[in-house]
Amino acid sequence: MGSETIKVAVVGASGYTGGELLRLLAGHPKMKIAVVTSEQSAGKPVAAMFPSLASVVSLTFEALAPESIAKRVDAVFLALPHTKSLQPVAACMAAGKHVVD
């Protein structure tokens, strides 16, 4: 990962921590949010959950599919409840992605 833009996913993006991650990443000059997941809000736009991000994140929440997500991003941020990250972290790391949990 040199000076190019880094495509990232935020897994568990509909919660408080996920929303803060979206806000921080949306303002980062080298990061591009490419995937956002939420099991409960899959199919809904991010703006429905976080109106303040409507002008900077035009994505729709998807269901968690670690192998599919890993094919589309360079790095994955997880904001899942305690103990729910083990399988997604393992799948993303097995795909050679950088993971922040």
Which tags fit this structure?
101 residues; alpha/beta; 4-stranded parallel β-sheet; 20% strand
Indicate the low-confidence ranges by residue numbers. none
Taken in chain order, the helices and strands follow as: EHEHHEHE
Q: Based on helices, strands and strand pairing, what is the structural class?
A: alpha/beta
Instruction: Please tell me how large the radius of gyration is.
Output: 12 Å
Q: Terminal Cα separation, in Å? A: 19 Å
The portion of residues assigned to helices is 25-40%
- What does the largest sheet look like? 4 strands, parallel
* Range of strand content: 15-25%
Q: Can you count the helices? A: 4
Count of beta strands = 4
> In order across it, which strands form the biggest sheet?
2-1-3-4
**Mean of all residue-level pLDDT scores:** 94
Structure description:
The chain has helices at residues 16-26, 46-49, 66-70, 86-94; strands at 6-11, 31-37, 75-78, 98-100. It is of the alpha/beta class and 101 residues long. Strands 2-1-3-4 form a four-stranded parallel sheet, sandwiched between helices. 34% of the residues are buried.
